[in-house]
Amino acid sequence: MRGSLRILLIGCQAFGFSMGSFAQLTTSATTLFTASSTTVLATNGAISNASATFNFNGTIELTGGNQSITTSQPVTIGGLALAGIGNKSMGGEWTITRELLFRQGLLVPNTANGKVVYTGTTPLQGTANSYVNGILYQRGTGTRFFPLGEGATYLPMSLNNVQDGDVELGVRAFNSGVSLTLPLDLSEIANNRHWRISTSGGTFRGSPASLYVPGSSVDGSGQLVVVQAEDTPDATAINLGGGLSGDFVASFLAANKPVLTIGIGERVDLRILDLITPFNADNINDQLKIVNIEYTFDNKVTLLDRWGVPVKTWKNFRNYDDAINPNSDGYDFSRLSPGNYVCVLEFQLTPDSPVQKLTQMISVLK
């Protein structure tokens, strides 16, 4: 850091910070008072805090191999930098307000007794050699990038255009798949990655998500999309759509469920047949028919005459010749005058998918 005060500490350190505008670091040889954000405390040993709650505006730089940094009380620091190969285990509650730098090594939060929260405005950046192996929480708006991974696998993601700045959003990556029930518009989901979102301190209304693609089991297999689901066994997957942007697939719709993964999107071929002939005796095309309507979760069908006046409306339409669940309303299509009509189908493929609309001109023949 240019113009910064840099202090190298070797061995095991113990923090004893005074309350107020200054912070006090005590070792066997040195006592330091500082309130400067440019102060860097570099250490290759373990750090343990057993004092009261404190604030330190500088940056702690972890330069050793496997290191432990723990606190028994909530801690707020300006910055944390990973600068040495190995695991940096963090126990207790840590809030990082300005910078969280990933140069070398893995940050491993111990979520059994606390959490790590980043509240800075500068987007985080990780690498395949330096990321968070565990849950990372962030609080703030805009794009929140999560440099995550599990074991030796780098699996970053981001939540884009976050609006709920008072909510702590925690994300963890997994290098395994998740069991989901696939709707018609999804043919496959990744079997070697997924992400789980947790929230604290408020309600998350959702935001579009970008998921890391390289190495995915579905990479290059078709139209990649972002998939979300509830965190329950064999929950129904929801297709959020997606487009590739560099190494990431970005969802078209907002993600607001706790489980995210990458999938292959499929087009659902819903077709409204354009001919009804109820006046002859061949028992063919006597009623309205919509191909694959049984795959919709919810639908509304409206038949309009040539002037746009509704003639008949169906809620959760089913085909009259459906072998399993036929329509039994007994509507007589011979009541329709010969001519042209418009059929409007509004539908959802899953409970949480967007409402889509399909319109088709229909001819009723004598």
Number of helices: 0
Task: Give the rounded overall mean pLDDT.
Answer: 87
Oligomer: single chain
Q: What class would the helix/strand composition place it in?
A: mainly beta
Number of strands: 33
The portion of residues forming beta strands comes to over 45%
What separation lies between the terminal Cα atoms?
85 Å
Task: Profile the largest sheet.
Answer: 17 strands, mixed
Rg on CA atoms, Å: 29 Å
What coarse outline follows from CA principal-axis ratios? elongated
Ranges with pLDDT <50 over ≥5 residues? 12-35
Helix content: under 10%
Notes on the protein architecture:
- The protein is mainly β.
- Among the domains are: 1-122, no CATH class; 271-364, Immunoglobulin-like, CATH 2.60.40.
- It contains no helices and 33 strands.
- It has strands spanning 6-9, 13-15, 23-26, 31-34, 40-43, 47-49, 54-62, 67-71, 75-118, 130-132, 136-138, 142-146, 149-150, 153-154, 157-162, 168-174, 180-181, 186-189, 194-200, 209-212, 224-229, 235-236, 238-239, 243-245, 248-250, 259-265, 271-272, 275-276, 290-291, 298-304, 310-315, 339-348, 356-364.
- The strands form six sheets. It has a 17-stranded mixed beta sheet that branches. A five-stranded antiparallel beta sheet has the order 12-15-20-25-24, with no helix packed on it.
